[in-house]
Known about the structure:
Distance between the termini: 38 Å
Largest sheet: none
Radius of gyration: 32 Å
Amino acid sequence: MTGLHAADMDDFHELFAQEHNFGDRLADKVAAVGGSWAFIIGFSIFMALWAALNTIVLAKHAFDPFPFIFLNLMLSMVAALQAPLIMMSQNRQAKKDRIEARIDYETNAHAAGEIGLVQDKLDLLINVLLNDKNVRSSVLDLIQRSKVN
């Protein structure tokens, strides 16, 4: 274990953000924009306008007549560039998630150890109290009441 705990999470996020170079930030932006409804709707509107412009408005002098070969080329190029950038962003997020999961696990393991120590101390305290005849009946009554609840 590395000894990282929940208190280290803020430092972790700062350190992880510092590791990002221009390409990493660009990939994250492309993934954020390309995976949004705004992009899907906007790009759909752009393609509809492109088709309308080249079939209705410019009819005889269209710069990309049906079947819109130039548009298909542009869409292929966008997809070819966008896909690796999105995958880079996803890989970085997966790495971050693995580190966060490890920190969470180590924090939980540490908390479980602390709870075990507190339980041991509580058991010792109960044993000490039970050995004192004056308090034994009060402690036994308290234990019975806590089991009922």
